[in-house]
Amino acid sequence: MPATEGALAQSDIAALTGALRTEGFRGGIDHDPASCAAASTDNSVYCIAPSLILSPQDEADCEAMMRCLNRPQFARWPVTARGGGTGTNGQSLNSGIVVDLRRRMNRILEINPEAGWADVEPGVVLDLLNDTLAAHGLFFAPETSTSSRCTIGGMVATDASGKGSRRYGKTADNVIGLSAIIEGRAVNSLAASLPAALEAEVEAACNSGRPHLLSRVPALSRRFSGYDLERARRGPDGFEWWRLFIGAEGTLGLVTRIRLRLLPRPPHRRLLVAAFDGFAAALDSVSALLGHQPLAVECLDEWVARLAGDAGLLLDLPRAVRGADGQAPVFNFIECSGGDAEALNAQVAAIARDLPKLSGFTGLHVASDPEEIARLWTIRSASVGLLARRDDAQRGRVPVSFVEDCVLPPENLSTFVAEFGALMQAEGLRYGIYGHADVGCLHVRPALDIADLNDRVRLGRISDQVFAMVTRLGGIFWGEHGKGVRGQYLAELVGAECFAAFRQIKSAFDPNERFNPGKLITLERGLLGVRSTPFRPMRRDGVLARAYGCNGNALCHSYAASQPMCPSFRVSGQALHSPKGRAEALKLWDGARRSGSLTPLIEASVHAAMETCLGCKACASTCPIQIDIPEMRSHFLEHWHGTRPRRLSDRAMILLERHHRAIGRLRPFLAFGPVAALMSRLAVRLGVNDAPSVSRRGLADLGVEVVTPRQVASRVSRGKLTPNNVLIAPDAFSELFDTDAICDIVDGLRALGFAPAILRLPAGGKAAHASGARAAFLRMATILKGELDRLADCNLPVIACDPSFVTLLREEYRHAGMMPRRKVVSMAEFLLSLPEDALPRLPPDGQRYRVFLHCTERAKGQTSSMEWRALGERLGLNFEIAATGCCGMSGAYGHEARNLTNSRKLFDLSWAPLIEPGATVMATGFSCRCQSRRFAQAKAVHPMRLIADRFAGLPRSDPAKT
Predict the structure, then answer these.
(1) Is the pLDDT of residue 959 over 60?
(2) Which residues contact 633 (CB under 8 A, 6 or more apart)?
(3) Which of 67, 90, 495, 761 is the most exposed place for a label (fewest CB within 10 A)?
(4) What is the distance between the alpha carbons of residues 416 and 475, in angstroms, rounded to a whole number?
(5) Strands 878-881 and 939-941
(6) What is the DSSP letter of 907?
């Protein structure tokens, strides 16, 4: 039957869906093509699409699900658990049924601070758990660089570990017990036993295989995991069957509940960032550093350090440490922690004294502030994403993970690095290295082009050679990320006797060989290996090239509400409704279209994924590969609407933007009470809620000159403008709906000594781009570009009123080949570009002024936040940048009735908790101010209003004289 091959027919799916509901299954059932595509990849080079995705509500739902699936007609259908989807070797990729445990089974069930444990469902994200435990002064010790999106269940499945494992061990060292579905019911290892016959069979296999495992596998701090015979049999009278599930990657069954060991959170931490002139010197320093007993020593090689510098991640380091322009130092991150601050300071001082004695040492920075430590650690945690960026110098090759977590005895680490480097040189490849130098676990990523068949062959050849190299040097091929399809090497490592015991255990727990079949241990099914597993489809050209470039790092699945990416995933919990999911959906659509297999079902499911995108652009900058779903969505919608009508609300927005000036002339009429009420009712009929009102004042009513680019160019040519003149550039929506903010900007610039004028500009095409009306967008872009180009030779700053206008010109216009010759800058960019003494400065007043940034600014990472903080320091104002995600408005998204619930949820996630009742909100974006007024009844103004009020009447600097 097809199920034995993994693919399920639609009739099979229909039969199972009915049976599940009859059995009492309450969770989600998804089998549309786009959802299955979204579950077809992880952070590896492989791709296997399931036929069905089940999202159980809780443990009881898992029991109902497995009772149904144990019926004879379904008993051999593949079942694979999936958590955060961050595996690097296809760990959770399979055909058949994927069980999404993160979407709904993500609760912390119980915390017992006194006993030091917590019970969690497998879908709980690591950062969420530790953020919750912080209130108790506790933490779950295993750490990963993907902690913002990896799940506890996934960590258990791979026996994950990361920074700090030298002190705290791996996940297995921090699990007390678990529940698993055995024969259709949940068995809790802390409260019940396995069925007697099953336990006897498994225990006998453990006893027979354990001596052979111990004799074959090196005894390292990052020890062997998966079917852990060593720890399952702790002594002659102790057998802990549940330990076999840790590291087994879901091949033995579904884990539904996990009890975790909690530890006191060290109250004091220090981070030393030590710079070296080369990676070899950094590695050679590790032995000396370990003599000081730090918590961790992490390293980056030259390539990763350069990428971090290019991404602006090194800006928190002093120039002496990060190096001058053109230099490329490498870094060791040395963390120390403890309960005694005095002893900790002495430990740090001793390390600082010894570092200059080490060869190649060039500089040191010590951080003690928790926020600074967290920012600096992002340099290391971002490594996996940074290495995803395409290396254009090597024909589109990009570093990929397939040999990336080898663990070696510390004394053989340098030998491994040298031999690995020689192998890469022989293959003609570049590579990046980062990782856990203190435990000998280095992440090595060769740069390959998976679209190239020769590089696919090369991947298999390198895997074989690195496995042999690591084994010869006394190491283990899989140090912390699990095995996945690299399980093909398992039998060779552990030997025939031990592997036979593994097969006996697999047969006992999974006689139908249905759980994550083809991984690690097989009985009758074929083994999925590094060569036999299907690769991701790749395409390097065309408007969807970025979708194909998605490497599945899943940063867009971050749980933190304060992160800009991705708002639609945050409110849905579905992988499809994230940049990663949408990239896979677009690839599915593109591949089907090019192969002639495109169906209405595929198109409709992809369209559903595009519909939930807010267009916030966070993925265009926050994503390590800058995937830019809004740009690709625009092209998809152009195709979609080629045969289907647009919504009336979309057409209305396009017309509103295009004819904003004509509509603006009707202000008095539109502001008349009955007319305004009629327009509001009409908007509701169009599916638009809380539509903004046309501003009562037009540009001509603001008490400032309004000029066209042609007039400006003429005056410049005649020498009629002064150096303190600046030009304010409002977009169509600011001009129509938000002239109060334009007035605030005018007043603020005047208070700082400038003479502003307002540019009258044509529509930019933002609404047309968002709805896929690309012909209309290009027409409007051409006209606006032409107008801005008139200012190309005018040495006057052009300042955008709204951050989204800057993004439109720099991103959408760039993609369209329409970049204006005259750069339009943000307010913070302009003011910070001036010399230090060009702006007046207030004496400190001890107050903090919270500024909410537009999501297109937040998406720029630290850059925009640092700009506004720096601007405040220049002016004598203490700007505190609110740590928020998207407010939920994002242009027209929040006004559409179909999005109202999610818009409110997003506002409540990160904005509402930071807004006091009746407070004045300073927000840089028009849509953010609208949302704050709508849901918090706040008075919302542009930050330039504060500057205007604080500097009004004070002596002004003359920017023209600086």
Answers:
(1) no
(2) 582, 610, 613, 615, 772
(3) 495
(4) 10
(5) unpaired
(6) I
User: What angle do helix axes 496-509 and 196-216 make, rounded to 10 degrees?
Assistant: 160
- What SS3 class is residue 747? helix
User: Rounded to 5 degrees, what angle do the CA atoms 482, 377, 433 make?
Assistant: 50
Q: What's the pLDDT tens digit per position in 700-743?
A: 999 999 999 999 998 887 777 777 899 999 999 999 999 999 99
- Which domains occur in the chain, in start order? 2-104 (3.30.43.10), 108-264 (3.30.465.10), 266-386 (3.30.70.2190), 545-640 (no CATH), 649-832 (1.20.1050), 841-959 (3.40.50)
Q: What is the DSSP secondary structure assignment for residue 693, as one 8-state letter?
A: P
Token pair for 655: 């017309």
Q: Retrieve residue 411's tokens.
A: 């004394």
Tokens 């570092």 -> residue: 355
CA gap 874, 856 in Å, rounded = 24
Which has the closest alpha carbon to 634: 856, 819, 815, 886? Answer: 815
**629-640 and 600-611 helices cross at what angle (nearest 10)?**
140
Whether 171 and 156 have beta carbons less than 8 Å apart is answered as yes
Please count the helices (runs of H) and the strands (runs of E) in the chain. Answer: 42, 29
The Cα 77–Cα 86 span in angstroms is 24
Integer CA distances (angstroms), 886 to 570, 615, 662, 699, 917, in order: 10, 11, 32, 29, 20
* Helix, strand, coil percent values for the chain (each to nearest 5): 45, 15, 40
Q: How far is CA 223 from CA 219, 439, 440, in A?
A: 6, 10, 11
Q: How many CB atoms lie within 10 A of CB 745?
A: 29
- The Cα–Cα gap between 938 and 930 comes to 9
- The answer on pLDDT for 3 being more than 50 is no
d(CA 787, CA 774): 20
Q: What angle do CA 760, 766, 768 make, to 5 degrees?
A: 120
| Long-range contacts, stretch 346-355, CB < 8 angstroms, 24+ apart | 347/270, 347/292, 347/293, 347/294, 348/270, 348/272, 350/292, 351/272, 351/289, 351/292, 351/294, 352/272, 354/288, 354/292, 355/272, 355/274, 355/285
Q: Would the CA dihedral through 606, 612, 618, 624 be positive or negative?
A: negative
Digit-coded pLDDT (tens) for 807-849? 999 999 999 999 999 999 999 999 999 998 899 999 988 899 9
pLDDT of residue 905 exceeding 70: yes
* Tokens describing residue 107: 């609760």
Reported as a single tens digit per residue, the pLDDT across 729-741 is 999 999 999 999 9
Q: β-strands 263-264, 138-139: how paired?
A: antiparallel
Give 468-533 as a 3 state SS string.
HHHHHCCCECCCCCCCHHHHHHHHHHHCHHHHHHHHHHHHHHCCCCCECCCCCCCCCCCCCCCCCC
CA distance 644 to 65: 39
Task: Return d(Cα 173, Cα 535) in angstroms, integer.
Answer: 34
Identify the sign of the CA torsion 447, 449, 450, 455: negative
Residues in the chain: 962
Report yes or no on whether pTM surpasses 0.85. yes
Distance CA 533, CA 224 (A): 24
Nearest Cα residue to 770 out of 661, 857, 890, 887: 890
Of 960, 959, 902, whose CA–CA distance to 931 is shortest?
A: 902
Q: What tokens appear for 936 in the block? A: 């918090």
Asked if residue 619 lies in contact with residue 627, where contact means CB atoms within 8 angstroms, the answer is yes
| Cα dihedral 472, 476, 481, 486 in deg (nearest 10) | 60
What is the SS3 assignment for 540?
Answer: coil
Summarize pLDDT for 319-330 with one digit per residue, the tens: 888 877 667 789
